[in-house]
């Protein structure tokens, strides 16, 4: 049984992520925890009378969140659900966003977070503090990011960009391996470099380790020479009809080049293609 955290702010983007998650995990037994976190710093919502004390504000905010959550659950009930395998639970938290996410991950033993992002305009500034960016960089939990323009497509082709500098145990890739098995997907391992040059000894050894690790799954290695990593990925996504991009969060420099870069007009993969960001498993508390 997988435990899936679905944060929602009741927006179109978060609905898209919920819809995607339900289809993505359609054939697996799952507990879905649909969660709305009311950040205390955002509690002073517009439209409230200015003379209300904090207790009254909190009560109004809670009632509003409960209403929105009921409406969301009704909308989910109208989807073609796998009712034998899927359970849905709702959670309302009042805390700073990341604190609330971490608390639920620990309490509910969350395996995956699935959340939306607004796409191009927000990705230019994603490093500056959007909820999605904070989760990716501050929370050690496997996260599936669903851009606003993404619609569910069975992931037949998954890209794994890598610089072949493996600073992690290969078992960190187990969630990706499971997805490849589940969907009979093909993995396209992509190396992008600024200059056309041979791999060094360590990179060759790490490529061989990846080849061995994925030996039971369909996979292939691809090489591209581009001045910017994001341009190489864009070209690869378009040429290969990639349905998902996977990254290892621990390789932080490469990871940030792909997700947190300055705006480039021709780059659109992060508005259309889901991202799977995988983390090392958090050590259990003693």
From TrEMBL:
SUPFAM superfamilies: Adenine nucleotide alpha hydrolases-like (SSF52402). InterPro entries: Rossmann-like_a/b/a_fold (IPR014729), Universal_stress_UspA (IPR006015), UspA (IPR006016). Belongs to the universal stress protein A family. PANTHER family: STRESS RESPONSE PROTEIN NHAX, UNIVERSAL STRESS PROTEIN UP12. It holds the Pfam family Usp. This is Nucleotide-binding universal stress protein, UspA family. Gene3D superfamilies: HUPs (3.40.50.620). Coiled coil: none annotated. Residues 1-147 form the UspA domain. It comes from Bizionia paragorgiae.
């Amino acid at each position: 049984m997988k435990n899936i955290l679905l944060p929602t702010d009741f927006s179109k983007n978060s609905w898209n992520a919920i819809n995607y998650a339900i289809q993505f995990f359609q054939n697996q037994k799952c507990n879905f925890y649909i969660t709305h976190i009311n950040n205390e710093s955002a509690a002073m919502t517009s439209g409230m009378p200015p003379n209300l004390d904090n207790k009254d504000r909190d009560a109004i905010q809670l009632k509003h969140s409960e209403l929105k959550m009921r409406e969301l659950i009704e909308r989910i009930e109208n989807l073609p659900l796998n009712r034998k395998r899927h359970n849905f639970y709702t959670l309302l938290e009042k805390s700073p966003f990341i604190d609330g996410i971490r608390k639920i991950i620990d309490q509910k033993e969350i395996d995956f977070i699935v959340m939306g992002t607004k796409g191009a305009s927000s990705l230019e500034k994603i490093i500056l503090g959007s909820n999605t960016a904070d989760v990716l960089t501050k929370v050690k939990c496997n996260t599936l990011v669903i851009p606003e323009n993404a619609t569910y497509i069975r992931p037949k082709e998954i890209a794994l960009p890598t610089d072949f500098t493996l600073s992690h145990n290969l078992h960190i890739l187990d969630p990706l391996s499971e997805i490849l098995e589940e969907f009979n997907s093909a993995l396209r391992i992509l190396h992008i470099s600024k200059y056309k040059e041979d791999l060094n000894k360590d990179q060759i050894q790490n490529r061989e380790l990846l080849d061995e690790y994925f030996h039971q799954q369909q996979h292939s290695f691809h090489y591209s020479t581009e001045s910017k990593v994001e341009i190489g990925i864009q070209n690869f996504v378009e040429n290969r009809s990639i349905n998902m991009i996977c990254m290892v969060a621990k390789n932080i420099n490469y990871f940030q080049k792909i997700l947190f870069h300055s705006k480039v007009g021709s780059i659109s993969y992060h508005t259309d293609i889901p991202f799977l960001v995988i983390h090392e498993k958090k050590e259990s508390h003693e």
